[in-house]
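As described in the Methods, two query proteins were run sequentially through the folding procedure within a single session, without resetting any intermediate state between them. The first query and its resulting structure tokens are shown here.
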Amino acid sequence: QKHTTSVSMFFPIRVFALVGFQTFMIWTIDHLPEFLKRKLLASEYQGKDLDERVKIKIFSGWSTVKALYRMTSINMSPALKVGQQVLHTPLLVLKSGTEIMLPELSKDSSRPWFSILAVAPDPPFLSQLAKFVAMQREFEKVADFAVVYIEEAHPTDGWMYPAVKQQFKIAQPVTLEERATAAARLGTELQSLGASPDITLCVDLMENGASLAFGALPERLVILQAGQVRFIGGKGPEDYSILACKQALEDLVA
């Protein structure tokens, strides 16, 4: 009991310390020469997205700090870890408009189920979305794929910055209907990349159960199999890696 109390007391301190460090790094990167920014951001952005990113500044004062605190609080306390049973978290399937439980997304419990829990306008996520689509094509015979749309990280009424594509510049949804509408834009983006219709697009409910379960804000990659968490990728954007998840998936289906 004393240990639990001690951990809970120090958690806000850890969050504030990390937010302070992240704020400092974002401000610093904003003011670096372009060639240094390019080197530092190359793991998060590719191609034209990187070219655009190095030309802008994203620190927006208090809105940035508040958004970082929200993300850090969620990322530092996920409810699930690798090896644990999947929670029966409700999700909305966008195509059918019906609610299902998270473990039910897998069509066959013996097959791995790979998912992105993501916010549509986050530029690093969109920059690597084509890689996700390519991986689904490669593994579609042995694994099921889904995208779960969660709360916005960069809404127009919060920490918005110029790198966000125009079609994704929206206010934070306050109802499930608004969140579903925003998720539909992500579906359009997937279609433009030639994504398979077998990719299930879901919406996290307003209680943010899926996001909290995996510490997913702004994005995170997970693999589930037979009711268990088999892999949880690094938190986005800096540790968001399609390659790491691909390697984990290869190991599971070998």
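Immediately afterward, the second query was submitted; its sequence and tokens are:
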Amino acid sequence: MSCTLKMFFSRPPECQKMLGKLLSTATSDPSNVDVHDKALFYYRLLEYDIEDAKQVILGNKQHVSEFVEDTETEVKDQIFEEFNSLSVIYQKPSHKFVTAKDLSQALVGEDDAEEASSEEDDQGSSAGSDEEDEDEESDESSSDDDSDEDETLVFLSMHSFGKSVPQVFEKNWMGTSEHEAVSLRLNNPGSSDSSIEQVLSQSGLHSMATGAAGGSIRAYYIGERKDKPGVFMGELNINLAARTVNATLKSSDVSALGAFKKHFLRAMSGL
């Protein structure tokens, strides 16, 4: 059938009748499903546009030199061991991820350099005015911190990100260096990663990906604020043997990090 079709594109007048009979016979005979479906595909392709059909049939085919099953590597084995985690999405093992600690160390160096430069520029200003400004700023920041900590977060029962949740998580996680670090101990002997997922889900934080890494469980959670825009994320390292949880919390609304930390600790208090 394929040969007849190729001949038709080279010598249409001589092969048109033969090709028509061949397609008619193949499409009317359902005894061989493969031949029937292939003939039906060719017929609809020709009916749609002959030039497009010619490009499909006579176009250059990509040469396949090897199959994926024959090219398994050590990296792919590591990714397979971390199945159902971000490693599958980014095609990299988890130890190659940029962690919050890496980002904070890089940003600390930049902040130190900026502070040193600003101190040199401000040496000519009077000490009295500097002290007054610092007092005013400290009063304002302390009042802002108090109001932020008193804020009560209300999350949507299910976020609205849908299938784009990995992109939303990555954009907001990498978009800020501000974070809250939380370390706590699991006091309930029955606590497990599934019970952690359950209590966090009830508080509006939903599991996005989990995976085993170096004897512990790494889990990623995301939630969306209800009353105003805000994405809240958490990276949890759960060691069930040591009964410890180390979490890094981030938010697209940096001012709500303190309230987010309280919300997280409140949700985990029963474990």
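DSSP finds eleven helices and five strands in the chain. We note this only descriptively and draw no conclusion about the first query from it.
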